[in-house]
Amino acid sequence: MATRSFLFLLGSSRADGNTETLARLAAEQLPARSGQRWLHLRDLPLPDFEDLRHTEGGHPAPTAPAATLLEATLGATDIVIASPLYWYAVSSSTKRYLDHWSGWLETPGLDFGQRMAGKTLWGVTALADSDPAVAEPLAGTLRISARYLGMRWGGVLLGNGSKPGDVLSDTAAASRAKTFFS
């Protein structure tokens, strides 16, 4: 079996929040030989996505920080979107990152779609609601994006918490984290 390489993209507007804590609990269970790269999207701010598909020249090759995110994305076998549930969806920085996938699909020479096919997309989120169904829009965004690119959908790990550290009290989520990436 080939060695897996996990890219954890943290979409929270704060450090060490519940979503990141839950993602780190799950990552602790990965085999030592699995690579892990952790990137905070707030540290790699992307401009708003501009659709250039129907303009002269189309989408140019990305420059920093988009180039860093592109390289990390293509270098991973498993991409983990760790975004808190903000208004029933992924965070704005996470959405902006996903929007840039559209440009990368159109960038000449990248073959982004072909290179994403076969990778696995995962989601991790913390929500401040007792009803897990409120996270379905977030899960749906990721699941359908994976399907569109021919990726495997690994699922979404849900935890409950509002203020930092609350998710550690969600014993069911901590238990699920232990086998999430299996």
Topology record:
Layout: E1 5-10, H1 18-27, E2 35-40, H2 66-75, E3 78-82, H3 92-106, H4 112-116, E4 120-127, H5 136-148, E5 152-160, H6 171-177
Helix pairs in contact: 1-6
Short description:
This protein has 182 residues and is of the alpha/beta class.
Mean pLDDT: 95
Separate helix tally? 6
Please list the strands of the largest sheet in the order they lie side by side. Answer: 2-1-3-4-5
Report the helical percentage.
25-40%
Characterize the biggest β-sheet. Answer: 5 strands, parallel
The whole-angstrom Rg is 16 Å
**Using DSSP, what is the number of strands?**
5
Low-confidence stretches: none
Order of helices and strands: EHEHEHHEHEH
- Strand pairing plus helix content: what structural class? alpha/beta
Q: Any idea what the shape is? A: globular
**What is the rounded distance between the termini?**
14 Å
User: How much of the residues is beta strand, in percent?
Assistant: 15-25%
